[in-house]
Amino acid sequence: MPNFRTTEQIMNIVADIAKGAFRVTTDLLYQWAGITTDATPKEIFLEATTNRFPMPLSSTLTFNITLAGMDRVTGDAITAHFEGSIKRTAAGTVSFISGSYTKSITKDDATWDTEIIADDVNKALVLQVTGDATNAVDWAAAGSLVTINI
């Protein structure tokens, strides 16, 4: 696995306006990585650890994530690009805004797939991948995320 930093911080604004305080955090880059060895859907984590991107209470997150995967044996590849938004309410529910996100995907193997999940159990943004049934597939993703919470 490559050695890289999880995030590059570019902006953090805390404002006190007439309606109250809020926080905006813009993160230039988050990176995920992982390996699959079968065709079972698997979550990949920040820096190939077990860390997810957590959603704070009363927050909205917009994401722009690019993902790539490659079969170690055949060289088959997949690329995907995701754009969308999720929120976590004051009550703690995590969901997509407008119920969905956009995805463009290109792949050599029709059985491979990848998804973004608004994970209400772990209160996080999750990347899930499905690779080859018999060969190891290396996965890497990078994305810019903007969050605001009140």
Describe the protein's architecture and organization.
- The chain has 150 residues and is an all-beta fold.
- The chain has one domain (7-149): Sandwich (Immunoglobulin-like), CATH 2.60.40.
- Helices cover 0% and strands 67% of the residues.
- It has no helices and ten strands.
- Strands 1, 2, 3, 4, 5, 6, 7, 8, 9 and 10 form a ten-stranded antiparallel beta sheet that branches.
- Strand 2 (20-36) and strand 3 (42-46) form a beta hairpin.
- The relative contact order is 0.30.
Would you give the CATH topology? Immunoglobulin-like
What is the element string, with H for helices and E for strands?
A: EEEEEEEEEE
Alpha carbon gyration radius: 16 Å
The outline comes out as elongated
Question: Any descriptors?
Answer:
150 residues; Immunoglobulin-like; ten-stranded antiparallel sheet
Offer a quick outline of the entry:
The protein is mainly β and 150 residues long. The chain has no helices and ten strands. Strands 1, 2, 3, 4, 5, 6, 7, 8, 9 and 10 form a ten-stranded antiparallel beta sheet that branches.
Topology, element by element:
Layout: E1 7-17, E2 20-36, E3 42-46, E4 53-54, E5 59-71, E6 77-88, E7 94-107, E8 113-119, E9 124-130, E10 137-149
